[in-house]
Amino acid sequence: MNPPDAALVLCLDEKTQIQELDRTQPVLPMRPFVPERQTHDYKRHGTTNLYAALDVASGNVMTKTTKAHRSIEFLEFLNQIKKQVPKELEIHVILDNYGAHKTPAIKDWLLENPRFHFHFTPTYSSCMNLVERWFGELTSKALRRATHKSEKRQTAAINAWTKSWNENPRPYKWVKTADQIFESIAKFLN
Known about the structure:
Blueprint: E1 7-23, E2 42-55, E3 61-66, H1 71-84, E4 90-95, H2 104-112, E5 116-120, H3 131-143, H4 151-167, H5 178-189
Parallel strand pairs: 1-4, 4-5
Antiparallel strand pairs: 1-2, 2-3
């Protein structure tokens, strides 16, 4: 894929069913020679779905949280992207083969919005989509040890972390070539 100069390349995916958890006891902080500790039990207050689009060149991220995970919410996120990205830019979207990305409503929307171009990752390889790396950082730095008593609080925490990320965005860079990656995978296939 070689997008034109006036283009934006976005890696887009969803992080579904993020649980809003509240521990039954406070998390005990780390101390010298003692790891952080938390109870094994929790109270669940619901789930949130997160849509995210990572700008490959700048590292900026656009997000949207939703209660449901259907093509309707995906379409709303595409419309949000459409409003946020300058009209003169072509938009190349790298995404997985999830069914909600290919519904008739999405296909019709793409026909009405010709500056959007979808590029699907091969089946079962969405881990190659760079926004997955961003989801990993969000999880480890903002969600894993956090407690949220409501969808509103969790959404606020996600939005605050995203805002902080976008104040100093860091684009991800592959450190190996495709040939090097395939060569290392081949070791496991023999």
